[in-house]
Amino acid sequence: MIIDFHTHVFPDRIAERAVSSMAAACGMLGPHIEASVDVLISELRRVDVDKAVALNIATSPQNMRAVNDFAQSLTAYDELIPFGSVHPAAPDALDELARIAEAGLKGVKFHPENQGFCVTEDRLIPIYEKISRLGLICVFHAGMDLRYRGCAYCSPEQFSAILPAFSSPVVLAHMGGYMLWEDVLKHLAGRDVYLDTAYTYGTMPRPLAAELVNVHGADKILLGSDSPWMGIGEHARMVALWGQNEEDTRKILGENARKLLCLE
Ligand SMILES: [Zn+2]
Questions:
Q1: Cα of 21 from ligand 1 centre, angstroms
Q2: According to CATH, what is the number of the domain 3-260?
Q3: What is the pTM of this model?
C-alpha cells in the first residue's frame, strides 16, 4: 500500500481562492494540481497511490469548528484520511480536541507560523497533553516556510525540547525541518519522531536525504508530497532513489504509515 501522508484539500467554493493567495505569498505561479477533493482523488489514481492523509489547519479561533466539520466530511472518501486542527488561541481548543477524537479523526495538524505560536510556549502544554491522552497523531509544519521569511517556530532544536511532552506519535513535516536539515541531523535524528518527505522534491540534496534516512532509520520516515503544491508521483519516485534497500523503500512509501494509521 502506498500512502501520501501530507496533502491538502479545501472545500470547492474556496479551493481556488485559498491556493492562489498562498501561491502569491510564496512567489509561485500556482499549485501543481487543483486543491479540490475530486482532483486529489483522481491524481492519487493516476499515480497509483492508494490513500492520502488530508491535513487541515484552523487558521483562526473563529474558523476552527468549520475546519473540523470539513475534515469530518472527508471521512466519506475511502481514499482520504482527514486530520483535524485546533487553534492555540481558541478558548475551547481542549474541547475541540475531544470533538475531533469523537468524530473518528486520527490526528491533528499544527502550523506554528500560520497559527501564530512557537512550539515551546507554555500555553501549548495542556494541548499537547490532551492530544497524548486522546492518542491522536500530531503533525507539525517544521522548519522554514516560504511564506514566513526568517522565522521558524518549530525548528529541530525547539522541537527536541518539547518532544518528551508527547506520549502519542508525532510527525514533523518536511523531513523534520524545511531547509534546516543539518539541525535535524544534530537534534532529532534517531529520536522517537516520524519525519515526512513533504516538499523535499528538488529542494533536499539527495546525499543529505540518504544520510538522514540512514541515521534516523527508515521505520520513522513517511512519504508525503504537500500536494497540491508539489507532485505526489514525483515524491514517490524521489524516495525510491534515496539509496536504501527495497524493504526500507516499501516502508517509507506506505508500510510505516499503514501501521501508524492502524489500517488493514
Ligand atoms: Zn503542507
A1: 15
A2: 3.20.20.140
A3: 0.95
